[in-house]
Specification:
about 425 residues, alpha/beta, five-stranded mixed sheet, four-stranded parallel sheet
């Protein structure tokens, strides 16, 4: 039986995780019907479940597959967001759509749009020793070669996410007198951190989490709404793929928040990692560096951009720096030219302050990795968190690229008992 998981993922150093070679299933799916209260369930030697009714009749029970949505809602068997990867979130699924387009009638084809994150572009640039512009243009050429119609850069949507984050913080800072839960604002761009916050701490943390969408989901909304209207298509006629450095982004794309009931489609249909892009290159038998560059596509213009979009900020998206500069100018009329970080207990916990005449006006922090996150949460619960804004990322060193090349062995995730375990390291097979 073929594995339902992506062949581009290779796991090592497993600890408290379900290996992807195992089909994660709920034991049985029982339909509750009137008169079945006296039924019993037994297990055959081959592992099949049977229900025996009160009159002696037997019925084989159907195994219920766990979906990615189930994993998000589960607080039992699944210990990490990376545990289960479903078929709909893999490069094989992208292959199926591209192959179906080749044989479908013109009116039945789906428009394939691929959005590439700057982090994935940077990883591939290092891997193939290319500059960022050549990497973006060669990636565009490769995806169009295998059947994609448009290739966009998510740095464009990141600007929207940053702008909304800036405005939200200023709004909440000004309204902090009327709400004890207005501050601190905790960033929401890291889905691993959000899953942890929702499952483990719930209402204690959720009011503090930013409501701004991540760049991936902003891009999803733009593609399925704005771009779909430009192309005179309904959202379900577009197949949107995001190339991301992080497997948790697959979980984010599968959330019900980002599903359109009207059109029965997700904002992002499929997320593939940097490692899966390498797998696609291997399957095609090509090297990215050997491809001829193509013109870059632009979401808001009929004229292709010649340079990929960029902005100031760190590898974790630049939320802290952008919000800090904007808030300093908007709230206090201070123009910050250089943001100076002060390391605390470790280099993954740093803070930034804005002072005037000895008074602290703004107190920001960056907390990366679950060791620092847990300490932050405890301070917040005790009412002793001194910060106005915290950029939170589940991975040490921020949005590290351990799920695609290169890998970072320092990444860790929480076990169910609250202790920390290093997650499976993933690399291109």
């Amino acid at each position: 039986m073929a594995s339902p998981f992506s062949g581009a993922v290779q796991l090592t150093d497993l600890d408290d995780f379900i290996a992807p070679s195992q089909d994660c299933i709920k034991p049985v799916k029982v339909d509750k019907k009137l008169g079945s209260s006296g039924a019993k369930i037994y297990i055959e030697d081959d592992g099949n479940y049977f229900q025996v009714s009160a009159d002696g009749g037997t019925r084989k029970l159907e195994k219920a597959k766990i979906s990615l949505d189930d994993c998000l809602a589960c607080s039992g068997c699944v210990t990490s967001a990376e545990t289960v990867l479903i078929t709909q979130q893999s490069h094989e699924e992208l292959r199926k759509v591209l192959d179906a387009n080749k044989t479908a009638a013109p009116g039945q084809q789906r428009l394939v749009v691929i959005s590439v994150s700057p982090q994935s572009q940077a990883s591939l640039a290092v891997r193939f020793q290319l500059n960022p512009t050549d990497t973006a243009r060669k990636l565009t050429a490769f995806f169009k070669r295998i059947g994609a119609h448009y290739v966009f850069d998510t740095a464009f949507s990141r600007n929207f996410s940053l702008l909304e984050s800036q405005r939200e913080f200023v709004r909440r800072f000004r309204g902090q007198a009327g709400s004890q839960q207005a501050l601190p604002v905790l960033t929401s761009a890291c889905p691993g951190w959000i899953c942890y916050a929702e499952k483990t701490h719930g209402r204690a943390l959720l009011p503090h989490i930013s409501t701004a969408r991540s760049p991936q989901q902003v891009m999803g909304a733009l593609v399925k709404d704005f771009f779909a209207q430009q192309q005179h298509l309904t959202p379900d006629k577009i197949y949107h793929v995001a190339v991301m450095p992080c497997h948790d982004k697959k979980l984010e794309a599968s959330r019900p928040d980002f599903f359109s009931q009207e059109h029965q489609t997700r904002d992002v249909d499929c997320v593939i990692t940097t490692g899966e892009v390498l797998k696609l290159l291997e399957e095609e038998g090509v090297s990215l560096s050997a491809l001829e560059p193509a013109a870059l596509d632009s979401l808001c213009s009929t004229v292709s951009d010649q340079e990929p979009t960029s902005h100031r900020g760190g590898g974790s998206g630049g939320y802290l720096e952008h919000v800090f500069r904007y808030a300093a100018r908007e709230l206090f009329g201070i123009h910050v030219t250089e943001v100076t970080y002060r390391p605390l207990r470790n280099k993954d916990l740093q803070e930034v302050t804005l002072e005037r005449e000895g008074q602290v006006l703004l107190h920001f922090a960056a907390a990366y990795g679950f060791r620092n996150i847990q300490n932050l949460v405890q301070k917040l619960k005790r009412g002793r968190c001194p910060y106005h804004y915290v950029e939170v990322m589940a991975c040490p060193a921020g949005r590290c690229r351990w799920r695609g090349p290169p890998r970072d062995p320092r990444c860790q995730h929480p076990r169910r008992d609250g202790t920390l375990a290093r997650p499976p390291l993933l690399q291109a097979a």
